Each structure stands twice: as structure tokens, then as C-alpha cells.
Amino acid sequence: MEWIAILKCPFTGQDLRLLTADELAGLNKRIEAGEAWQADGVPFKTTISKGLVSADGAFIYPIIKEIILLLKDLAIVDSKDKLASHKISADKQLVKNFYDEKGWFADEEGHYEDGVIFEDFRDVTKEYIKRCHDRVNRYLNPSGTYMVDAASGALQFEDYLQYSAHYKYRVCVDFSFQALTEVKRKLGDKALCVLCDMTNMPFKDNTIDGFISLNTIYHIPKEEQLTAVNELYRILMPKGKGVIVYEWFKHSPWMNFWLLPSRGFMFIKNRVNRLISKLSKGGAPKKLLYFHAHPYSYFKNNLPFEFKLGVWRSVSVPFMKIYIHKNLMGKKILNWLYNKEEKEPENCGLKGEYPMFIIEKK
Predict the structure, then answer these.
(1) Residue 252: count of CB within 10 angstroms of its CB
(2) If you write DSSP's letter for every residue of 120-167 in order, what string do you get?
(3) Helices (H), the chain
(4) Whole-angstrom Cα distance, residue 225 to residue 216?
(5) CATH code at 107?
(6) Selection from 63, 85, 81 nearest residue 72 by Cα
(7) Would strands 60-64 and 191-195 be described as parallel, antiparallel, or unpaired?
(8) Phi and psi at residue 268, to the nearest 5°
């Protein structure tokens, strides 16, 4: 298990090693006796057959269904004195719950709920979306040992597999156990599945050959997004390359123009729904998923390293569902748009919906 060498304890930063057979037996006795807790204070009640332990022996991280649990809250401790002082935030828990309970379960057609809600699976957009997915591969090193996919989700598009095709391991990082279960089913031993927090990555400095992070940073609390990006840069080895796909949302002037009527309608609809909920004493409608988009200037002015701005896709799914249709020259419009993006990647990345942050470590 050579990959253990790149891991570190998310509490102490120390090296990790596999638990011995004797240590596992002792741990399972404590679990059965009710003398083991998760670091979030929840009693740990399931015996385990494999796990990692920090160099000082203070924190144990279970490996369940070949998924390495390196989230602070899920570390096993033998004393309440070692409980984490800060638990997962409500916004992060919202994201975790959505994907564990709903987002990464597939329907009869094989589409994950996340895709049903947020993606466009129509034939008229299929070619354009695939060509946009293919762009990412241009900016990664073609091969290596470790490629981190943060947050990988369930790898719902086959197009995504090309990014790690010539890497020994695809290190899939996610908050959702359900997502990583799907990844392991699809990739087997090629996948190193790590349940962890992107703002506290359990990898040593300069150990990863490349990374991708597709459509996920904006689901991290707004005050921690810079931390997540800096963590990805920290673990990247010199001459390593990475790509982040972000979303500008209301900071995209092109989408603000084309979607103004639609957004105005949704604004009024949401206000009415909140008013109805308030009058019926049902409280505010529950949020589906946390989202916050910063403008380009926020990253440009605050990240301590340089990055290039490119384009992943200029238009959003709502735009395509409103304006792109088979009988209205939809494919021709998207082909024209793709060619424009190829000619003006930085401009389209700045003004369109989905930019790419293209990173290479010196």
C-alpha cells in the first residue's frame, strides 16, 4: 500500500500507518465495550477490519468498503478528551446530506439525481457538453502516479475518466460516502477513495502529480473557498498541473443578459413561496444545497499564486434549456459558440458561466 506514504493525519499532520492485527483486536474490544467514540462525540459501535492510525496513536481512521475515512469528525478516539472542538458546519452538512441521501442515487435510466436537477441530457446539447468536458484534459500532465479528483462525486460522466487514464491512481476525494461507493464500484483498485474535507486535505505537501476540481468549490462556504484552492495547490508537486472549474452565476455578464427574464420570474416565485411558508407557519423553505459564487477579482486578488483563466463552458443549463432546441438550429448555435470559446478562451471564461482556473506549480 504505497499510497499510505502520501497521507497525513488531518488532526496532527503526522504520518499514518495501518493498524496491526493486535491493535485491531484491541480496538474492536473497546468498541464492543462502548469505550470508543467518533471525534464528533457519537459513540462508535461498528467493529472494523482495517484502519489507519496516527503516529502518536491518538487518532484512528477506519477503512470501510475500501473507503478511507479521513474526515476529522469520523476519527475514532478512546477518550472524550480527544473530541473535536469544532464540528462540521451547517452549510457543509447540507451538502453532505444532499449527496448521501439523494444526489448520488441513480434513476431507472442511470442518471444520478444530481444530474437530473443540474445537467442537460438532451441529444441537442450532448456533443457540445462532451467537447467542453474534453477541454480539461489539455491542461493536465498526460501521466503520473496520483491524480486527485476533488470532489469526485460519483463520476457521473464517462468523459471524466480520460483525465486519469494514464495515472496509476485516481485519488477520489469527496464528502459523500455514497459518492465514493459508486466510484469504487466503477474503478476498483485504480480508485483511492478518501472521505475528507477539501479545506483540510489529508495529503502531504508536494505529493500529487495533478488534480481536477469540477463544479464543487462554490459549494464550499464562501469564507473557506480560498482555503480549499490553496490546499489543492499545497499538495501539488512541482511541475504538477491542476484545473478548477468554477461558476460565476450572477457575476457572468452574458448570462445576466440572456437570463434576466427567467431570473426575474424565479425571484418573484421564490419570494411568493417564502411568503406562503411564512403565512402557513411552515417556516422558510428548506435549502437544497449550499452555493456561493465569488467574482473573478476575489480569486485574482487573494490567491498567493498565479493561475490562467480559461473557459470550460460559456453557457449554463438554464440558458440551454431556454434557447437551445433541435428545431431552432440548436446544434449549429452550440457549434458556433464552441468555436468562439476556442478562439477567445480567456474572454469567454471571464464573461461566460463556467471558467477554468488553470494551475501549474513552479
Answers:
(1) 25
(2) ---HHHHHHHHHHHHHGGGGS-S-EEEEEEET-TT---GGGGGGGTTE
(3) 21-32, 90-98, 113-118, 123-135, 177-187, 225-235, 253-258, 260-279, 296-302, 317-323, 330-343, 345-351
(4) 10
(5) 3.40.50.150
(6) 85
(7) unpaired
(8) -65, -45
How many folded domains does the chain comprise?
Answer: 2
For residues 65 and 122, membership in a common domain is answered with no
Same domain for 355 and 210:
yes
Predicted TM-score of the model (pTM): 0.92
| CA pair distance 352, 295, nearest whole angstrom | 12
Tens of pLDDT along 241-299?
999 999 999 999 999 999 997 877 676 776 767 666 666 666 655 677 899 999 999 99
Cα dihedral 68, 178, 133, 220 sign: negative
User: Is 278 a domain residue?
Assistant: no
132 domain residue, yes or no: yes
Residues 116 and 56 in one domain: no
**How many CA atoms are closer than 13 Å to the CA of 225, on its beta-carbon side?**
25
Give the span between the Cα atoms of 135 and 352, in whole angstroms: 16
